[in-house]
Design goal:
The protein is of the alpha+beta class and 270 residues long. It has two domains: 8-136, Gcn5-related N-acetyltransferase (GNAT) (Aminopeptidase); 154-269, 2-Layer Sandwich (Nonspecific Lipid-transfer Protein, Chain A). It has eight helices and ten strands. The strands form two sheets. Strands 1-2-3-4-5 form a five-stranded mixed sheet. 19% of the residues are buried.
Length: 270
């Protein structure tokens, strides 16, 4: 049974620098004063309060360093409050006293106060499995590259609608039709098509009272439009097979299918 040992956890201060570098050099190796300066002190997002040290009788026996990162989600969205644990070390003489565990828990307490959106780090499979997963319930992210393709966006749809409207103006089949169709497609923000007076209008999101709502949980429409194979018959089959769900006014269904038929015809010609 391991004897309980008393030590103190506290935030880093500038007087700790030499002792931490010495601890890292003696146990990990390769960390010099210049490297420490480059990685932390010269980092424009350096925050000393996100470095936690374990101290016993005035000696630093462990530390956990963290950097603040930015995450670019899209061209216009950048999340600036992301934490990334960098280096964790406990002096060999003082291991097996839960110092590493308590350093990590203290760090996440600091991160919570900083209102970080999330934290991420890099670890070997062994360190992840036997430390981070057990201590803070970390989740493993696959190391393979995942490519996400954006098939629809408002700008693209607006261009398509502008071209479609030129064709619809000459289409007498839609002259007296008024219908609002909300689409809830897999992996795509909701949008609504409004057909009125031979004009097609796109609205981001859903309106309060659409005539028809189309729910596609399996990506049926997206997979069909990607290959230009979209047809009214395939949509009807998807409805009958319950892969597509239609909600709304029953008497508007015939109008819906007429609209879809016309839109599909024009979609193929664009």
């Amino acid at each position: 049974m391991t004897e309980k040992m008393e030590y103190t956890l506290r935030p880093y201060n500038k007087n700790d620098e030499s002792a931490i570098i010495e601890l890292l050099q003696s146990n990990i190796g390769g960390t010099s004063y210049d490297q420490w300066t480059w990685k932390y002190k010269l980092n424009p997002n350096f925050d000393p309060s996100l470095i936690v040290v374990a101290e016993k009788n005035g000696q630093i026996i462990g530390c956990l360093t963290t950097t603040v990162q930015k995450l670019k989600i899209s061209r216009s969205i950048i999340v600036k409050s992301i934490g990334s644990p960098a280096e964790i070390i406990v002096h060999p003489k003082y291991r097996r006293h839960n110092i590493g565990k308590n350093l990590a828990l203290k760090l996440f307490e600091y991160a919570k106060n900083r209102k970080f959106v999330t934290t991420y780090g890099f670890a070997s499979p062994e360190v992840f499995q036997f430390f981070w997963k057990r201590v803070v319930n970390a989740v493993s992210i696959p190391s393979s590259t995942v490519v996400y393709t954006k098939h629809l966006n408002h700008q693209f749809m607006s261009r398509i609608i502008a071209k479609t409207n030129k064709l619809l103006t000459l289409d007498k089949r839609l002259c007296k039709i008024n219908i609002a169709i909300t689409f809830k497609l897999q992996g795509i923000p909701y949008f609504t098509f409004i057909v009125s007076n031979s004009k097609l209008k796109l609205i981001n999101g859903q309106i309060k009272t659409p005539n028809i709502t189309i729910e596609d949980q399996y990506g049926i429409i997206r997979s069909l439009t990607r290959n230009k194979k979209l047809s009214l018959l395939l949509i009807i089959k998807a409805v009958l097979n319950r892969n597509l769900k239609l909600k709304g006014v029953i008497k508007k269904l015939s109008v819906l299918f007429l609209c879809l038929r016309v839109l599909i015809q024009h979609y193929r010609s664009i």
